[in-house]
Amino acid sequence: MSINTENSFKMTKELKQSTIKEYAIHEGDVGSPEVQVAILTLRIKNLTSHVKEHKKDIHSKRGLLILVEKRRRILKYLRRISEERYQNLIKRLGLRK
């Protein structure tokens, strides 16, 4: 997944669609845990760069923590239903677990 981590990063429709295509399990899949985690990872990387630049922006920091927790819950669910899919996803996204 090619994620731009510059400060000018913005979640575009094209970027979201390409992420959905890359992580979809089957044609038309937009809600599988893999797709959800991939999209959340994009948003988390975007907010992380914003929070690094704007250290006193506590509202964005709170939003970042909420997204991280949401991603953690979805990953926990995915691990419970299929360890193989979980391992494959964290390897593809480069997440530490």
Provide structural commentary.
This protein is mainly alpha-helical. The protein has one domain: Helix Hairpins. The protein is built from four helices and no strands. Helix 1 (13-23) packs across helix 2 (33-53) and helix 2 packs antiparallel against helix 3. Residues 1-8 have low confidence and may be disordered.
Keywords:
97 residues; 0% strand
Q: Any idea what the CATH architecture is?
A: Orthogonal Bundle
What is the CATH C-level name? Answer: Mainly Alpha
**Structural classification:** mainly alpha
The span between the termini is 18 Å
Q: Per the principal axes of the C-alpha atoms, what is the gross shape?
A: globular
CATH topology (fold) name: Helix Hairpins
Rg (CA only) = 14 Å
The biggest beta sheet is recorded as: none
Task: Determine the strand fraction and express it as a percent band.
Answer: under 5%
- Give the name of the CATH superfamily: S15/NS1, RNA-binding
Helix segment count?
4
- List the secondary-structure elements in sequence, H or E: HHHH
Level of helix content? 55-70%
Q: Mean pLDDT across all residues, rounded?
A: 89
Low-confidence stretches: 1-8
Q: How many structural domains?
A: 1
Total strand segments: 0
